[in-house]
Amino acid sequence: MTPIRKIVIVGGGTAGWMTAAGLAAVLKGLPIDIQLVESAEIGTVGVGEATVPHIRDYNARLGLDEADFMRKTQATYKLGIEFRDWGRKGEAYVHPFGAFGQPIAGIPFHQHWLRARARGEAAPIQAYSLPIMAGLAGKFAPPSSDPRSLGSTFSYAYQFDAGLYALYLRAYSEARGVVRTEGKIATVAQRPDDGFVTGVTLESGHTIEGDLFVDCSGFRGLLIEQTLQAGYDDWTQWLPCDRAAAVPCDSVEPATPLTRATSDAAGWRWRIPLQHRVGNGYVYCSSYISDDEAARVLVEKLDGKPQQDPRFLRFVTGRRKRQWLKNVVAIGLSSGFLEPLESTSIHLIQVAISTLLELFPHQGCEQADQDEYNRVMDLEFERIRDFLVLHYHANQREDSAFWNDRRAAPIPDSLARKIALFRERGVVAAYKDGFFKEPSWLSVYLGQNVLPDGFDPLVEAIDPAQSARLLAELKAAVARTVETMPEHETFLRSVADARAPA
Ligand SMILES: Cc1cc2nc3c(=O)[nH]c(=O)nc-3n(C[C@H](O)[C@H](O)[C@H](O)COP(=O)(O)OP(=O)(O)OC[C@H]3O[C@@H](n4cnc5c(N)ncnc54)[C@H](O)[C@@H]3O)c2cc1C
User: Fold this and answer.
1) pTM of the model
2) Which of 265, 379, 442, 465 is the most exposed place for a label (fewest CB within 10 A)?
3) What is the whole-number distance in angstroms between the Cα of residue 11 and the centre of ligand 1?
C-alpha cells in the first residue's frame, strides 16, 4: 500500500480553506504536500455567516485563539436561532444551543413539563432554557465549566464574515506549508485504467498532479460531477426553495446573539448580525415569486441601509450520490446543498473533514473507506434534511399558496415516523450519528404547535407537586442568571477591543 504524498484541493471558498487548514493541522508530521487551486475570476459563493457550536471544536483543533478569531472575522456570539412566523403568523420560538432543563428521576425534563402543561401549571417551555432567555434579552456570557451550574447547560456558536474566515484560514494554512495556486482549471486528467484523477491543468498550461483530490469547487462539482459523474439525489420534492437573494445592511441596533429566520410568502428571510454589518437574505421558491419581487421584499424589510444591490444565488437541494468516488472527495457545496435554515453547511464541511481524516486512505483509496465515508455523510445529510422539512411541514400559515402547499406536500417516511412517535406521547426519536438531538427537535415541534396527545406514563411515578416545584425553581434560576449576564454587545466589545496577542 503506497501512502498519499500529495493532496490537491480544488477551490478556495470556505470549504477549500477549511479543508486546507484542517488537513495541514492534523497531517503536519507526515511527508504530505498540500496544494490548493482557486480562481479569482470564478470567485466564491460569498455567503454563509451563521454556524453551529461544533465550529468551536474545529477552531480548537486548529489551535485558534478565540479572541483573535472574533476580531479577524468580525464575529458575534450565537445562542440559537429565532424563528418568527413559522407556526401561526405572529408566533415566535427559539431553537437554542442547549437543553431544556435536566432529567428528573431519569425521565426527560420535557415529559414533566408536558404533564405540568396538561395540568395548567407550566410556563412556556422557553422560560426553562437559559440560552433562549439570555438570547431574547440580548445577553451573553460563555458557559460555565462547572457541570453543577445552570451556566453549564448551553453551548454557543458564531455569526461571522465567511469571506474573512476563509482569508484567516488561508493565512493559517500557508503558514503551515499549504501552497496556493491562483488560476482557472481548464482540464482534468484521469488514469485510463481506473478513472482515478491524476492532475488538473490550468488555463496557463501549468499542471498540478496529486494522489488525492478534494473537490471544493462549489455547486459545479468540477471533479466529482463534471469529471466523475457521481450523480445527484434531487430533494426538491421535499425542500423546493431553489433561489436566494442576499444583501448586507448597516447595523442599527446592538448585535443580538441570535440568528433570525422569518417565514415570508414564498420562503423565509435570514438576518445574521455581525460586528460590522447585518447579513440578510431571502431563500425562496421561484415557482411562487419572481427574483425582482423577492429582492424588493428583502430590501423593504431590512433593518438598516443596504450596503449593495441584492445578489442572486440558484441551487438544487440535494446530495451527491457518492461524495467520495475513486480518489476524489467532495467537500462543501460540491457535495450537496441544504438550505441555510439551520446553519448547517459549514458544519457539514467540518464533518466531512473529520470523517476524511478518520478514514485517511492510501493511494488506492480502498472501496471500504469510500463506502464508510459515504454512509456517514449520507446519514448526516438525511438527518438534517428531515429536520429542515419539519419546519416547512409543521407550518400553520394560511395566507399564501407556498405555505399551504408545504403543509400538504408529502414528507420523507423517516420524518413521518419521527413525528408520529412525538405526537403520541412526546418521545423524540434518538439516533447516534447525525447532528440534531432531542432539544433541537423539541424546540421545533413545540415552537410550531406539534403537540403530543399525552406524556410518558413513567412521569406519574413522581409526585406532580414535586415536579411543579422543580420546574418553578428552574424557571426562577434561569431568570436570575439572565439578570446577572452582561449585554452581548458589552461582552463582545470586551473581546473585540482587547489588545491582540503579540
Ligand atoms: C444562500 C446561501 C446561504 C448560506 N448561508 C449559510 C450559513 O448561514 N451558514 C452556513 O454554514 N452555510 C451557509 N451557506 C453555505 C456556505 O456558503 C457554503 O457551504 C460555503 O461557502 C462553502 O462553499 P464552497 O467553498 O463549497 O464553494 P464556493 O464558495 O463556491 O467556492 C468554490 C471555489 O472553487 C473555485 N473554483 C471553481 N471552479 C474552478 C476552476 N475551474 N478552477 C479553479 N478554481 C475553481 C472557486 O474559485 C472558489 O474558490 C449558504 C449558502 C447559500 C447558497
Assistant:
1) 0.96
2) 465
3) 9
